Amino acid sequence: MEPQDIKHGKLWHWLDERVGLKELDKLAKKKQVPIHRHSVWYYFGGMTLFLFTIQVATGILLLLYYRPSAGEAYESVQFLMTEVQFGWLVRSIHSWSANLMVFTAFVHMFSALMLKAYRVPRELTWLSGAGLMALTLAFGFTGYLLPWNKLAFFATSVGTEVPGVLPVVGPFLRRLMRGGDDVTGATLTRFYGIHVAVLPALVTALIGLHLFLVQKHGMSVPPEVERQGGAKRTMPFFPNFLLRDVVGWLSALGVLAALAAYYPAELGEKADPFQPAPAGIKPEWYFMFMFQTLKLLPGHILGIEGELVGILAFGLGGAFIALVPFLDRRTARGERSHIFTWVGIAIIAYMIALTYMGYTVSLR
C-alpha cells in the first residue's frame, strides 16, 4: 500500500480495486478551472444539470400516480395534488424546476456564445449543447399537455398547428405530432411516451457526450484572456469549484421550495375538446417570443403566407446558432470578432422585447 493511500478507509480500497477510484481521484485533482472576471458564467452549466436531476427525481415520483389517458390523466393529477401526501409539493417543484432549467439553459448557451466558448477545438461541445437546448424545449412542450387541462389542451392544439403550414411535409408533421387529425387522447399518450422515454434517453446520451467533451478540452477562457497568455489564476475543480457549485445548487433548491410553497402549480379545468378555446390563450414563457412574432406577421409577405415565413425564419435562426462555430471564422483564426457578439445581444433583446409584448398585450 502506498503512503498516500493510508488515509483512506477499507471501503475506499475495496471500491478502488474494482472501479479504479485512484484514477478518478487523479483526474479530479488534475482538472483546473480558470479564474477571471467572467468566471461566474461557468456555474450555469452545472446549475442546469442539477435542475435536470431534480426533474428526473420528481418526474419518477409523479409517474407513480399519473395515468396517461384522456379519461384519467386529469383525475390522476387531481388525486395526486389533493389526496397524496406532499403530492402538490412534488408536482409544484417539478413544474418550477422545469421553468428554471429552461432559464439557466438559455443563460448557459448565450454566455458561451458571448465568451466565444465554441471556438476550435470545441465545435462539437457547442453542437451537443445546442442539441440539449432543443431537447430542453421539447421537454417543456411535451410535458405541458400531460395534466390534460383546458389551457394545455388548446395551447397544444395551437402549437401542433404551427408546423402544419409547412409545404409538402406540414400535414404529415402535424398528424405525426397529434397521432391523428386532432389533439386527442392519442396525442396525450404520444407526448407522454416522448416525455418520459424518448427525450430522457436522448438527453442522457447527449449530456454524457457534452460532459466528456468539456472534460477533454477543459473550460475555455475568453479570447481576450487567452491573448494575454491564458488565465493566470486557476482553482482545482475538486473540491474548490465543486463546493461553489453545491452552494449554487442549494440556493436553487431553496428558491424552488419557496416558489412551490407560495406559488404551487395550478391544475385548472379539465380539457373539453367540444368547448371553445379560452380567450387570450398563450404558450409557456419560453415560446412566447415565437408566438408573438407569428401573431404580428401580416397574412402574406411577398405572396407567401406570413406564418410560413415566420416558421422558416425561426428554423434558419436555430440553424444559424448551431453553426456559429463554423461561421465565425475570425474567432477561429484567433482574431477579434465582434459581429457574433452583437448578433447574440440582438437575439437576447429580441426575445425579451417580444416576450414582454406578448404578456402586456394579454393585459389589455
Overall pLDDT: 92
- Low-pLDDT ranges: none
Structural class: mainly alpha
Oligomer: single chain
Strand content: under 5%
Count of alpha and pi helical runs = 16
The general outline is globular
Instruction: Classify the helix fraction into a percent range.
Output: 55-70%
Strand arrangement across the biggest beta sheet: 1-2
Radius of gyration: 23 Å
Please outline the major beta sheet.
Answer: 2 strands, antiparallel
**N-to-C order of helices and strands:** HHEHHHHHHHHEHHEEHHHH
Total strands: the figure is 4
| End-to-end separation | 75 Å
Task: Characterize the structure shown.
- With 364 residues, this protein is mainly alpha-helical.
- The protein has 16 helices and four strands.
- It has helices spanning 10-19, 21-30, 43-63, 73-82, 87-114, 123-144, 150-161, 170-178, 185-217, 223-227, 237-262, 288-296, 306-322, 324-327, 329-332, 339-362; strands at 32-35, 233-236, 300-301, 304-305.
- The strands form two sheets. Strands 1-2 form a two-stranded antiparallel sheet. It has a two-stranded antiparallel sheet with strand order 3-4.
- Strand 3 (300-301) and strand 4 (304-305) form a beta hairpin.
- The longest helix has 33 residues, at 185-217.
